[in-house]
Queue: 2 jobs
Job 1
Amino acid sequence: MKQLILLLFTISLVSCGASKTVRTSKKVIKGEWTLSSISYSEAGTYNVTLLSDASKACFEGSTWQFIPNNNTGIYTINDPSCSTGARNFVFTIQEIDQQTGLYDFLLKPTDEKHKSDTNQGFRLSLTSLSEAAMQWQQTVSVDGKPFTIIMNFTK
């Protein structure tokens, strides 16, 4: 009976915590990043508003700070021709496939501007993460076809 209770207790501890891969990812993502480039899966010129906030041109060169111990962060638009300033967000990293290294990444702005937008969050794929580089991809539908926005960060 004691072994059964110990086994159940151990299983509950393991199942409640984040996986080792997600915990490692949170350690790597911690700190300040620069959104260095944004590209698209299809050739052409597109008028895309990212995170219901600003254009591609405004986001390129923005700085991002991730604080994993409370899953919060701040991104700052630095382009003087855009609405500059800091924006707060919360984020969650969820493991999808340990072999491919792909993660589900949920980013939810928490500033007053976004609170009126029905508390909208944005689901992205964290497709690459190292000590010096990170890549997010967001797939949306354009004219009924998948269209991927690729965001590359450097640390």
Job 2
Amino acid sequence: MKSYLRFALLICLSLPLPLSAVAIKKGDSTEQVIETLGKPMGTIELRQKTLLLYPQGEITLTQGSVTEIDLMSDEQFAKDQERLRLEREEWLADQERRQAAHTKEGLSIRADKMASREFATRSAKEQLDYWRSFQIRYPEVDVTEQISSSLAGYETELTELRSQQRIAELEARVAQAEKAAASARLETEKLRQETERSERSRNNGLSYYTDPVIDSRYYYRPPTITIHTSGQKKAEHSPRRRNGVYRYDDGPKESVAERATRILNEATGQ
């Protein structure tokens, strides 16, 4: 910032000094000062005072009249101009040296990155972000080719990423469908088993209950039937168990009335 202000001051002080600067005296009006020295570089208002700024100094006016004169002589102004000229040339040379060093540094960094295997293994997005940051830091070094190459690679990566995302979504849908199908098959198998159990129970005429803890069915054994005639026991009929099922006989099925008639006939010997 100081270098910039100094450079601006050098430009301002390089203006030629009017030969009539010595003609300004106290009591002159603002118009006379401007007519003699020209338009000032700037003006400062301080309550009742006004400062007119010129390359060779300043003029103070109070209520429109010159009250103070602070201007350099011709000899002083010439010496100051020469000093400022040398400082300006030195400043410009320093800026050129700094710019050259900065450019050399940027070129060296660019060459190192282009030859780096580690940098080449980075993703295209990381490379693109780096070259954009590099361009801001070293605007005088051309990295257009590097940015274009990284951008093309980044677009390819985005295309592949979108494709992988779509494949993952399809795989998730297939897995969900398979899970739903397996659940449906399980429910169907449970329903089939329940239907078969109900059908067997209805055909065998047996009573059972299900243990809620071990999910097993227990069948009640039918009672033994004993028929007495004139106080004497004539016959006993007990159910037979085959394959876990109790049956009273192995013959064809008969109704309750037919079974009772048959049992009475056997008891009376008819």
